[in-house]
Structure formats: structure tokens, C-alpha cells
């Protein structure tokens, strides 16, 4: 069993040091822009808070690059934007910029901040994944994620050790180490060869690719880490597992992979659900270690129970695209509508909020659900009332994630990723991505937020 060390983590089990100013440097090949400030010589420039900023046509972009699901929702090639801007500004104070409490601390270290924090964005058209330092909003690594570079990666998931896994839509899963200290000699050259900017090394030269598992499917979307077991005495995460789901024809297979080497630990075929082309589209793991998967449109919501690999199926009441699980155990599906599922009562609450695609909940029972609003930025939805409380601009918005400081991140379809202050709406952008498409747990925040397994 390979063990992964993590040092004195508070809140998120992710590790990036940098100055407290998110605009403290320029990105490799992309640069930083910040809203509400004048340009200066350090590469920071003023941006129009109403602009898309991603170099594309905004919420009408082509989405997934596939043929579309026919439900009239955004993404996957239909080029349709059903979201509308409600024009609200939202003045409710929200203290998200604090590190959430966590039991996952290394004993006695006394360090109050994670040592690094990265956001991982898939460059689908390039066949790579970018590592973005969330402190400095710069790209600090880029990696090919399939030997032929033709995987069309999309969903990313970050483990509590801080390492990332990415699913290739054309089949296959790859794990990449977050730190050079974890990488292993494999190419016969002295030292560790790894990317440290926006240029990927050739497959076989890059030594921070932990493993690649080829999988022969026509559609492979979701990927989600489970928590694993934390050893407080050694500060190691052990027995981390990775979930993925894939489709061939009308067959939907759900896998549990060994996080150390990518080997299959469990697999089950879901019966009684129409696969369509995409099968299970979005995925997340809850605090019990169970896997939740959602389908496009008004499809099915599926839970696979980790203990015995049995599964439960519910009908989704409104069209969904993105999905997440919050700290209270509620499951959310997101599109122009938002839907909240209570696993205890097996009931849904829905509202039309003018969203778009991805979503993620912040920490705490009084927090917000943050949703993409396409070229219009992001919205914050009250998780009790399902009413919009915040509307902030960004440099385009498709996938949503949150970092360990509570900043909201939006990855646009195209080239731009934005870091957004949830209290003031100020945002910073990096514009060096290539055909970006991702809206899963890009930082590991969602996994940390749901807590450790209760059983």
C-alpha cells in the first residue's frame, strides 16, 4: 500500500503558498486580470466586469463538443443558453473567507494554513490538464492525460491527499501527483522531470503522472475521490479510492478504483436505467463514502452504496447538468433550474434561478450554493429558500469550484478561469487554458466539505 503524506492541513486537505494578494503574479502564457483596479507594470490590468473574457461567444458556446442531449439545456453541443440574469446584486454578508473546521489535522503541528492549494482544469481539446495555484492565479503545471493525447478530458477530482484524477471522455482515467516530492523516477533520467508552467512534457517523460488506466468506453464522464482513511499518528491518507462511471451502448458500469495504482476494486452494472449516449454524467461522493451520479435532462439520480455496491434510483424532477453534494448531505442538480434532493425523505425541492451548468456548495449549513451563469458570471443561491442572493461577474463561467480560503472559481468554456471574492465580487482571471471544459470538484473542497465517512 502506497501512503501519501500531508502536513498539518486545516480545512481542506490540499497544499500552495503565495502572497495574500491573488493578483501577485502573471500566469505562464496567460497573465492575470483583476476587476476594479487600474493597470500597472506587474501584469495586472483592469477588466470590464460585464465582459465574458473567455474569447468565445459566452453562454452560447458549443459546450461539450458532442452531439447534444436534446433536452434544450446548455452544453454538450446544443449551443443553447436557457439561463437568464436576474439582475440581483445581493447584499447579505457572508463570512466564507475563513478556513472551515476539520478533524483532518496533523497532530500538534500548529500550522493554520494549508501548504498548497491547486485548481485543476481540463483542457479538453488539447488532451491536457492544467494545475492553477489558487493563491497567485498562475499556471504551475500542465500534463498530458492519455498516451495518445486524444482522450478529451473533462471531469477532475482532487483527493484529500491533494492529488488529482481526471476522466477522459473517450475512455480512461489518469492520476497526477500534486507535488514533486510525491513523484517517482520512471524515465531513466536523473532527477524528477515534470512540468512547472503551461507546457506539458511528452508522455513517458513526465514523472508526476502516477498512473493511467485505459478503459474502452464510448463515454466516460464522472470521476470522484472517496475520503479514504486518515492516520493521525503518521499524517498519511491511506486506502484512498476513486469512483468513475462509463457507458458503452446501453450499459452503464460504475467502478471503484484503487487510488494507489488504478486497479479495479469493484464494478457494478446499473440495470433499469436508460443509458442514452452519456450514461451517468455528473458524480460526487457523500460523507458515507457512497457515490452519487446524475444524468442529463430529466434523467435519473443514482446512488451506489459503497458497503455492498447495491444501488438506488430516483427520477429527477427537472432538467439537470451539474451536480454536487453539500455538507448537510443534500444532493443538488443544476442547470437553469436548481433541484435539491433529501436522501432521508427522498423528496425534491426545485426552483428556477437562471443558472447554467456547474455548481458547488460552500461550507456550513447557512452557506450558499454557487452556480454558473454562463457569460454572465456566477450566482449564489440560498440553500434553504432556493432564492438567488448573490450575482457576481466573472470572465466567463461554466464549471464552479471553491478553494480552501472560500474564494469561488469559475472555469469558462474556452481559455479563462476566474477567482471571485464571494463578498465583494472582485475577480481575477487567468487566460491561458486551451479548450477548457470542466465543472466537477476541481480543488477537493467538495470532498472535504461533506466530511469523513460516518460508518
UniProtKB/TrEMBL annotation:
<feature type="compositionally biased region" description="Acidic residues">
    <location>
        <begin position="63"/>
        <end position="87"/>
    </location>
</feature>
<protein>
    <submittedName>
        <fullName>SMP-30/Gluconolaconase/LRE-like region</fullName>
    </submittedName>
</protein>
<feature type="compositionally biased region" description="Gly residues">
    <location>
        <begin position="52"/>
        <end position="62"/>
    </location>
</feature>
<feature type="region of interest" description="Disordered">
    <location>
        <begin position="16"/>
        <end position="109"/>
    </location>
</feature>
<feature type="compositionally biased region" description="Gly residues">
    <location>
        <begin position="16"/>
        <end position="33"/>
    </location>
</feature>
Amino acid at each position: 500500500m502506497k501512503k501519501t503524506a500531508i502536513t498539518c492541513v486545516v480545512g481542506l486537505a490540499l497544499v500552495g503558498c503565495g502572497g495574500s494578494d491573488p493578483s501577485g503574479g502573471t500566469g505562464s502564457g496567460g497573465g492575470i486580470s483583476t476587476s476594479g483596479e487600474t493597470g500597472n507594470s506587474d501584469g495586472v490590468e483592469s477588466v470590464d466586469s460585464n465582459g465574458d473574457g473567455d474569447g468565445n461567444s459566452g453562454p452560447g458556446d458549443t459546450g461539450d463538443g458532442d452531439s447534444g442531449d436534446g433536452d434544450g439545456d446548455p452544453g454538450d453541443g446544443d449551443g443553447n443558453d436557457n439561463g437568464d440574469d436576474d439582475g440581483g446584486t445581493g447584499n447579505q454578508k457572508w463570512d466564507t473567507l475563513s478556513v472551515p473546521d476539520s478533524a483532518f489535522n496533523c497532530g500538534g503541528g500548529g500550522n493554520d494554513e494549508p501548504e498548497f492549494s491547486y485548481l485543476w482544469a481540463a483542457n479538453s481539446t488539447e488532451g491536457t490538464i492544467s494545475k492553477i495555484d489558487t493563491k497567485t492565479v498562475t499556471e504551475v503545471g500542465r500534463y498530458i492525460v492519455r498516451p495518445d493525447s486524444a482522450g478529451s478530458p473533462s471531469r477532475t477530482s482532487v483527493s484529500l491527499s491533494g492529488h488529482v484524477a481526471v476522466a477522459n471522455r473517450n475512455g480512461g482515467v489518469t492520476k497526477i501527483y500534486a507535488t514533486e516530492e510525491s513523484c517517482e523516477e520512471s524515465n531513466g533520467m536523473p532527477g524528477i522531470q515534470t512540468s512547472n508552467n503551461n507546457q506539458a512534457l511528452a508522455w513517458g517523460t513526465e514523472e508526476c503522472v502516477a498512473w493511467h488506466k485505459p478503459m474502452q468506453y464510448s463515454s466516460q464522464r464522472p470521476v470522484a475521490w472517496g475520503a479514504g482513511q486518515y492516520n493521525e499518528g503518521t499524517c498519511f491518507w491511506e486506502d484512498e479510492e476513486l469512483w468513475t462511471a462509463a457507458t458503452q451502448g446501453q450499459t452503464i458500469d460504475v467502478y471503484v478504483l484503487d487510488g494507489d495504482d488504478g486497479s479495479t476494486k469493484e464494478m457494478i452494472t446499473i440495470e433499469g436505467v436508460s443509458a442514452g449516449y452519456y450514461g451517468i454524467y455528473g458524480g460526487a461522493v457523500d460523507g458515507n463514502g457512497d457515490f452519487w451520479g446524475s444524468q442529463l435532462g430529466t434523467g435519473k439520480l443514482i446512488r451506489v452504496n459503497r458497503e455492498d455496491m447495491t444501488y438506488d434510483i430516483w427520477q429527477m424532477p427537472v432538467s439537470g447538468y451539474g451536480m454536487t453534494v453539500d455538507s448537510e448531505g443534500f444532493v443538488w442538480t443544476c442547470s437553469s433550474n436548481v433541484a435539491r434532493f433529501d436522501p432521508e425523505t427522498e423528496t425534491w425541492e426545485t426552483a428556477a434561478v437562471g443558472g447554467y451548468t456547474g455548481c458547488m456548495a460552500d461550507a456550513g449549513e447557512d452557506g450558499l450554493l454557487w452556480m454558473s451563469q454562463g457569460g454572465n458570471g456566477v450566482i449564489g443561491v440560498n440553500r434553504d429558500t432556493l432564492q438567488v442572493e448573490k450575482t457576481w461577474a466573472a470572465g466567463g463561467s461554466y464549471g464552479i469550484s471553491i478553494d480552501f480560503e472560500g474564494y469561488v472559481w469559475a472555469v469558462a468554456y474556452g481559455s479563462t478561469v476566474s477567482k471571485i471574492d464571494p463578498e465583494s465580487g472582485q475577480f481575477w482571471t487567468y487566460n491561458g487554458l486551451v479548450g477548457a471544459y470542466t465543472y466537477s470538484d476541481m480543488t477537493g473542497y467538495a470532498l472535504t466539505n461533506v466530511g469523513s465517512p460516518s460508518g
